[in-house]
Design brief:
Largest sheet: 9 strands, mixed
CATH topology of the largest domain: Dihydrodipicolinate Reductase, domain 2
Structural class: alpha/beta
Strand content: 25-35%
Oligomer: single chain
Shape: globular
Distance between the termini: 43 Å
Radius of gyration: 21 Å
Number of strands: 18
CATH class of the largest domain: Alpha Beta
CATH architecture of the largest domain: 2-Layer Sandwich
Helix content: 25-40%
Number of domains: 2
CATH superfamily of the largest domain: Dihydrodipicolinate Reductase, domain 2
């Protein structure tokens, strides 16, 4: 493997005039998120054009050598590792992208910060708020750019929703309600994978799905000051993956929570992996004094809006808006109006934002989620668990 440092390179033919930095990517994980992130890095330079930097797929790391080698060949990485510590010693790696299981977030990210790497980490940032705080302290001490991959912040319709709310178009916000529903573990014979093991995952539907909608609540409405939650595990034992018997499921299958926001808005959030017919149903609604906004990830190019000041005899009612015009967020980089984009493109927008933050020394937050946002998200998740256990309202304290 080559050892030389990464410097500045001239872009390939067809690029913008002048030189842009090439930033080396070191990826931990080759499965779902490894594929999604690699795909976005490859698309970014020619679609988010001209790019602030060109991502270079330097190395990918995983525990299974054969699977990791296959992923390196498939996605186009220069090299592969089975030890993330060795990958972090590669001087060509400028950005450490952590797409590993939740128990592999803290130690590698802290080590990457100490090695001076910029860091992207999948959500949830950590299994607990205490673990997330250690990660936050590490990146702040090192002074490296850091981002938690809450990619739904970069869906054009949700960026448009945030802009509308910030402009005051909805006026005072009364309600935020969000659900994230899936169906994939209803079968009691579905094995006890790592997402169903508290030691690895930290929590169940709460951290896997709920973290996303809790983040969107903070992104769109503001900070919650207290929560009241309930959790439920419907299948308490599942077959072990190795066929050696059954294991106890010690995470939640579903949760519901009330959020009391600092600005007076009332929120409800719910997530479950036990909802027949729901594949990836991330749906939210925000009600304000001047109007309402409704969004459904399964129809991610659409935004339903209602304006109170319209003539009730003429056009008053919810309007379904296709967020695909050239003046909508990110659309100048894609296709003519009405030619929709998909889930994968949110990662392209997200990583473009992160590269811009690195190259031009811009903050990741508030449009992206940094490790401070990831820590706050973990605090809220912990408070929901505490509330469910105590059956009492719990204040959110960062």
């Amino acid at each position: 493997m080559a050892k030389e440092d990464v410097g500045f390179v001239t872009m390939a033919a067809g690029a913008a005039a002048g030189d842009v930095p090439e930033l080396g990517i070191g990826m931990l994980g080759y499965a779902f998120m490894g594929k999604a992130h690699s795909n976005a890095f490859k698309k970014l330079p020619y679609m988010m054009y001209p790019p602030p930097a060109v991502p270079k797929l330097v190395a990918i790391c995983g525990r299974n050598e054969q699977a990791t080698a296959t992923a390196a060949k498939r996605f186009g990485y220069d090299s592969y590792y089975t030890d993330w510590k060795k990958m972090l010693k590669n001087k060509k790696v400028d950005i450490f992208d952590n797409g590993g299981p939740n128990d592999a977030h803290a130690a590698p990210c802290i080590a990457a910060a100490e090695a001076g790497k910029h860091i992207i980490c999948e959500k949830p940032l950590a299994r607990t708020a205490a673990e997330a705080k250690k990660m936050l302290d590490a990146v702040e001490k090192a002074g490296v750019k850091n981002m938690v991959a809450f990619n739904y912040r970069f869906v054009p319709a949700l960026v448009q929703a945030r802009k509308l709310i910030q402009s005051g178009a909805l006026g005072r916000i009364f309600h935020f309600r969000a659900v994230y529903l899936q169906e994939w573990i209803i079968d009691p014979n579905f094995p006890k994978i790592w997402r169903l093991d508290k030691k690895v995952a930290g929590s169940g539907a709460l951290g896997d799905l709920g973290a996303h909608i809790i983040d969107l609540g903070r992104y769109l409405v503001g900070e919650p000051r207290s929560v009241m939650g309930m959790t439920r595990t419907f299948v308490e034992e599942r077959p072990l993956p190795d066929g050696s018997g059954k294991g106890k499921v010690d995470v939640d299958d579903a949760f519901v929570a009330l959020l009391d926001f600092e600005n007076g808005a009332l929120g409800t959030v719910e997530a479950s992996r036990f909802c027949q017919g729901r594949k990836n149903f991330n749906c939210l609604e925000i009600n304000g004094e001047k109007g309402s906004i409704q969004f459904n990830l399964e129809k991610m190019n659409e935004l339903n809006v209602f304006w109170a000041n319209e003539d009730p005899k003429e056009t008053r009612g919810f309007h379904n808006i296709n967020i695909s015009e050239s003046y909508h967020p990110y659309w100048e980089n894609w296709w003519p109006q009405g030619h929709i984009i998909g889930w994968e493109h949110s990662f392209v927008h997200e990583f473009h934002h992160f590269l811009d933050a690195i190259v031009n020394n811009k903050p990741v937050s508030p449009w992206g989620a940094d490790f401070a946002d990831g820590y706050k998200n973990a605090v809220i998740c912990d408070a929901i668990v505490k509330s469910a256990q105590s059956k009492k309202t719990v204040d959110v304290k960062y």
